[in-house]
Amino acid sequence: MSKPYKTILITGAAGRLGTELRRGLAPLADRLRLADVAEIKDLQPNEEAMVFDLADEAAVTKAVEGVDAIVHFGGVPLERPWEDILDANIRGSYHIYEAARKHGVKRVVYASSVHAIGYQTLEAHIDTDAPVRPDSLYGVSKCFVEALSRFYWDKFGLESVCLRIFSSFPEPADRRMLWSWLSFEDCTRLVTASLTAPRVGHTISFGLSDNAVKPVDNGKAGHLGYVPQDNTERFRAKVEAEKPPVDPKAPSTLYLGGWFVDIGHPNDEASK
Amino acid sequence: MSKPYKTILITGAAGRLGTELRRGLAPLADRLRLADVAEIKDLQPNEEAMVFDLADEAAVTKAVEGVDAIVHFGGVPLERPWEDILDANIRGSYHIYEAARKHGVKRVVYASSVHAIGYQTLEAHIDTDAPVRPDSLYGVSKCFVEALSRFYWDKFGLESVCLRIFSSFPEPADRRMLWSWLSFEDCTRLVTASLTAPRVGHTISFGLSDNAVKPVDNGKAGHLGYVPQDNTERFRAKVEAEKPPVDPKAPSTLYLGGWFVDIGHPNDEASK
Amino acid sequence: MSKPYKTILITGAAGRLGTELRRGLAPLADRLRLADVAEIKDLQPNEEAMVFDLADEAAVTKAVEGVDAIVHFGGVPLERPWEDILDANIRGSYHIYEAARKHGVKRVVYASSVHAIGYQTLEAHIDTDAPVRPDSLYGVSKCFVEALSRFYWDKFGLESVCLRIFSSFPEPADRRMLWSWLSFEDCTRLVTASLTAPRVGHTISFGLSDNAVKPVDNGKAGHLGYVPQDNTERFRAKVEAEKPPVDPKAPSTLYLGGWFVDIGHPNDEASK
Amino acid sequence: MSKPYKTILITGAAGRLGTELRRGLAPLADRLRLADVAEIKDLQPNEEAMVFDLADEAAVTKAVEGVDAIVHFGGVPLERPWEDILDANIRGSYHIYEAARKHGVKRVVYASSVHAIGYQTLEAHIDTDAPVRPDSLYGVSKCFVEALSRFYWDKFGLESVCLRIFSSFPEPADRRMLWSWLSFEDCTRLVTASLTAPRVGHTISFGLSDNAVKPVDNGKAGHLGYVPQDNTERFRAKVEAEKPPVDPKAPSTLYLGGWFVDIGHPNDEASK
Amino acid sequence: MSKPYKTILITGAAGRLGTELRRGLAPLADRLRLADVAEIKDLQPNEEAMVFDLADEAAVTKAVEGVDAIVHFGGVPLERPWEDILDANIRGSYHIYEAARKHGVKRVVYASSVHAIGYQTLEAHIDTDAPVRPDSLYGVSKCFVEALSRFYWDKFGLESVCLRIFSSFPEPADRRMLWSWLSFEDCTRLVTASLTAPRVGHTISFGLSDNAVKPVDNGKAGHLGYVPQDNTERFRAKVEAEKPPVDPKAPSTLYLGGWFVDIGHPNDEASK
Amino acid sequence: MSKPYKTILITGAAGRLGTELRRGLAPLADRLRLADVAEIKDLQPNEEAMVFDLADEAAVTKAVEGVDAIVHFGGVPLERPWEDILDANIRGSYHIYEAARKHGVKRVVYASSVHAIGYQTLEAHIDTDAPVRPDSLYGVSKCFVEALSRFYWDKFGLESVCLRIFSSFPEPADRRMLWSWLSFEDCTRLVTASLTAPRVGHTISFGLSDNAVKPVDNGKAGHLGYVPQDNTERFRAKVEAEKPPVDPKAPSTLYLGGWFVDIGHPNDEASK
């Protein structure tokens, strides 16, 4: 059976999740093209690598040539001063989408984030149609790309899945992650489903494992066919022993974004 | 323990699903009365058979006499010229409901179809209250019977369950069926639940196995107690090897009705 | 300024509303073609008339030739035995839609009825997306045409507006009509809006004047641009003086369909 | 690992569920303080007991001193004359909440009941935001406490979970309980989740095991992390053999409250 | 034309709104029976008066004898210590409803209050089905009567309209009242509509004039036929000149309940 | 009576709407500070002007100093190449918000656009919570500012109203504007309401006059108190005489964005 794609470009391929995806997505394409600002040294036979900055439009355009799907996990992964967010996440993602349009890429899977909706509450149990509530400039940039990718689908027919990943780490590191965790294996399952579902059009999906606490309703992404297999119960005793209980009235407990809601403006922070 | 029903009439009993239901519903009634336009030769001791056309009101009325539940799976099972749809599905189903009213039948389980909502999209993730969107004259006839049965419940107290069956075949035959499949065993479970739930009033339920891709939300049929046990994962590799990927932008991928949306008017087709 | 249509066919043109529409729609077309089972004798210069039965497919097809819009108000206007409903409203409306498709008619305005949703309650304040709840075989036939016309739009691009007219009479005749009344002038406004709105696709609209009691929410038909100008306040004193108060617990008070919910099966009634 | 609470007060501790909770909640607190109108004789080393009436405000205030969580399952457990409901459930629960406020209790878990929504139907599949529909003065008192506890959260920051328990018995005793059952183990799981969830604010949750028939949608309590482990399938054959089928049209089948909807006014009943 | 009612009992008849209603409701009944704890001295020919406390069940029962509708505006009209709320609003309203049931009263119009939903926000634009959020013990007592009256409708068929009156004063006294005002004339219109609508079952309606700022959606009370005629624009300049702007971030600006959300527990306040 | 604001900054003050707002907003502030890339020569006594580019952060910061409200109508007003959109609308608006935060501005009124939701349909009748569907890079930039302003409210307490203006011109210029028109006077009313409502938090409002065709539901902006006074009926005859009917099936008729959905990528267009 032939693989669904010839060449998948993974941006942010040297990052925490990018590294996982190199292994997890190998069965889906003849070739993985890895892009990052950092060099990747352990290239596998099915891989090729390119080092460049997403703000460099020419480099991005070149990297997208010959690609039929993009897994766009690159860019700044947390709150940073405006200029960094602007270059890497806003300008960089525009470069990706515009290159994808020019080169006829079929589908883009984008690492959006819970921080696009970080000021929504657990108790609201929102679905993926709820209005955005970014908790950071980082989150605002995720909202920008969600809107941009919607535009590229509606006008140019470029399919996208925007994954609002909550907390994807080797294991839950604190009490919040007992409900916000997305295991690496489930993350791979989610990206795989996004790449292989018969039609995605423009889809937003939350990125969570099957944890006991259910903060949101992912029903409107049901056409992806994502079935999480992990949950945090096996880590519960350890986390609860090591980490003190949270304050139920603290903003970081109330809001989906967690401690992101507590940080100030990044340009203020940077000047401290 | 006595069985819930004395005599269940199964229409379309010689058909694909009718044949399955003969075996599956045997535990629910002392006697199964089998109706079809075709003769059934392998009658079991608990069965009796009648051969007639649903358009024949007198024959239908006679067949319903002494019956306390009807599993109405008869009629034209796919797109056909208007006159056939009219006779078998519209007039025929009216005959069934009117006979059921006259003879005091308690409950009817009707094989409606995904084609009553074939122009709804997967991405809409509709529930059973969403407006109808038939994709064929066949689908229009299903909408008619859903409305008719609602009327017989609201005014005459005759309970009905309308099952919007997606694709019930021995196994998924193409990529669409990887999400639209209803296994025969789950079909039997669904009809059984419909016949034994404490109260159904007038209920519409989707008919799907527990496949990974979830196209619709069946929560409003939760009082039936239907718990699907099958899914298509064990067929996935085979189907994906044998069938080419679908075009994500094709109407037959976008809409729940699949290839039904591609066919023209049946009276045109018939004249080709 | 040229008129929006060349020839509008009005079915049921000899009826109560048809007669009003002859006058009201004259400004919209060069020519009105009037169809009815009864002969119309007072033809105006802009009118032409045809006498035939909607169940006669050949006659319908002929009447639709050369027409660019149809105002389909013909058929049985209240509860009748099944055979009458079947012939005039089900078969007859199919003939209209199929002829419209064959002759390239642009838009159909159909007189649906509150009786398509007669078993919905005032207190539910439904909108036009709520599931149908017919209160009569007459109402079931209206549901059929709503589904049929949806199909003709989704598959063949034939635009339709289905008007769920409540009570269109010269003046409110009982206490229920104090809230269910649609004045003749507002009826004409509603049909005119349906014929001239820039796009209707397939639209369902309630048909009511601007009465104080608001039983339903017509917001989803807001693209028609219908602005009612009448209400029943000037009739209130007279009606309340002449008609006794209703029983708040009677089904005919509870349900939108009024006294239609009290009548039995028309075939029983016919045999009385 | 230290326990989440120092002292939990359980009211109604001598009752059916209270007895279960003594065992089930032991792991959550250093000490359980048991309150009831009846004396409890089998005190365990981690337990202390107090005998008093909830209508006695001074006694309640004293019992709450030194407590950091309250599991309030005391009061009249079924329909009773107004004066009893008033004293035990309305005045008694006010005493509990006011004492909790004065003594700085962190969280209250309250045994509300399906009878707060007993006149909602299975077919409506309500969620926890649906309007209350009490089926008894008992149910009205549950609505009162749900509103009172909401007030204590919104104004004074006292967290509460109101559990609308359906039928918590050793095993399903009739056909209704096949869908309304909450096993004792699941009841303990639900109270435990309510006491240990990171934040509850004011949450209403249905109390049901994972039975096949799903009468309601508990999604908006998903932040509790309650995962039921039991269902009634293993009791089905026995119950169906012993209990006759229900009448699908009986009010006690239609409404969530079951036979509570059939009983008259308790003060009438008391005078019989 | 005969009047709709023979005798209407108005409780709280000596109060601000009660006094208005004496005049406004005169056309609706042959006789008005006025009840209050205070004596009413200016009795009109169509009026009779009774002085008693709502907590006195025997007196209430006597006052309801011979009455066919009750306009229940009596009780404590603002935040007060628990014992007062309990006696006048909770016990008192129970007495009213129970007497109404015993004496076959047809309809009750109850003065509920915005304070039943005082912790909902303007920006939420709730409708009348939204969950209660009382801002005071006074508000909790309003929630209690809304639930109690629902019970009396569902089980005993006693119709009720609960009016969530916002601010009914001679004219808007502060900036909040520019949107929360209900003129006396509109109040009378609303009570009149509630008494004369063909069916109310159990209805909750907001009580507001047609002010420019629309804080809530009253569509689900559309069957009352209430059409407000007043608004606050003619008072705007005066109020804005006399009253300083509000703080947009203050809780009393955010929440529907206004300054009620700022007051503490009434039993604390009483002891100050 | 003192004015609500000391100094309002109007950006885009030399533009079509900016010119109107100079006159319309004069009563709301002691002083209007006018900003534009073009020089304004007809300064009134209450006005001062500054000429700068929004991409110049230092100039923006300086212009915001001493201002207590901003009416941000500046930036690129229609589709343009990415670099222009990026500089004027994305970077420029960030500069405005960041300067507003630093200088303690109380409220910002932002000219968002229908093009943020241009790919939503009339028939969907969306409200302001519906997901964004930009029809252009221009529309994407509007989505960016809506998300950015939400962030500045949620985290820094800076109030904003985002006005999704449809078509604000002297009079309706084509058939689409018969429903999409916002008169200049209504535009001024809407901005005035946004500046004077007691609390706006972060509000999105559609910007439309009271035209007969209602494409959207603005109920969730009801706390602004905007009451449109104009509609297009007086222009209808003229427009319909001059402009040909639209094609009901054209994308520019279907979608709210009108002809914006027909234009290609602006960078392609620019290179033509």
TrEMBL record, chains A, B, C, D, E, F:
InterPro entries referenced in this protein's UniProt entry, alphabetically: Epimerase_deHydtase (IPR001509), NAD(P)-bd_dom_sf (IPR036291)
Entry keyword NAD: yes
Stretches assigned to the NAD-dependent epimerase/dehydratase domain: 8-169
Matching SUPFAM superfamilies: NAD(P)-binding Rossmann-fold domains
Key words of the record: NAD, Oxidoreductase
UniProt similarity note: Belongs to the NAD(P)-dependent epimerase/dehydratase family.
Protein name per UniProt: NAD(P)-dependent oxidoreductase
Organism encoding this protein: Shinella curvata
Upper classification of the organism: Bacteria, Pseudomonadati, Pseudomonadota, Alphaproteobacteria, Hyphomicrobiales
